[in-house]
Amino acid sequence: MQVLEQSVVVFSQNYLPLCRVNIKRAIVLLVTNKAQPLGFTTESGWQVHSPSLVIDVPKHIRLTITSNERMWKVPPVNRREVLRRDHHSCQYCGSSKHLTLDHVMPRSKGGSHTWDNVVAACERCNSRKGDRTLFEAGMQLRTKPKAPIHPAISFAEQFWIDMQANLESQESIRNAEINLH
Q: pTM, whole model, 2 decimals?
């Protein structure tokens, strides 16, 4: 993969992983002193050459400026947002065709129109479930519905899961090498 197609993880001043940016954006942040390199892994970054300069771009950078993050509000419970959260697939069978919204606990039985009670469902599953509870219909959800979370939080969670998996795989490689000797 070419160097300019790489991406860099950006951390806040408080060392919270915020997002990934392309290497060009990372260079701008570093050159303008809005970010500094972070070297908490053994992986080296990349060297980028210009006619008059050679820049070492690490895989992780930390902002030196406070980012006045826009206020993020939980989006309203509507068709577009529910389909986005549920990855445009039925939460009962996984189909991506003829999607509708379904209230897990029917409104007629006291269910509310909230993030934890509305899911994407194909017309077939929605009709099969009808005006019944999951138990009454003998159906199960593929995932538990919940409100969307801030994109930076979602990114941070995935970043630390990936880091942990990377550390575990490196450890098993080291253990295998030790056992060979």
A: 0.55
